Amino acid sequence: MNLDLKKDPHQQLKGNLHQPTIPEGFNPSVKEIPEIIYNFDLLYQPDAEVVLIQGTIAFRVEALDALNGQPFTFEKKLKIDETYNTNIEFITDELNFLELTDFNIEDFLLAEIALNIPIVLTASHGIISKNGLGWEVLSESTYQANKADSQTNEVDSRWDKLDKWKINE
Question: Is-above-0.85 flag for pTM?
Answer without folding.
Answer: no
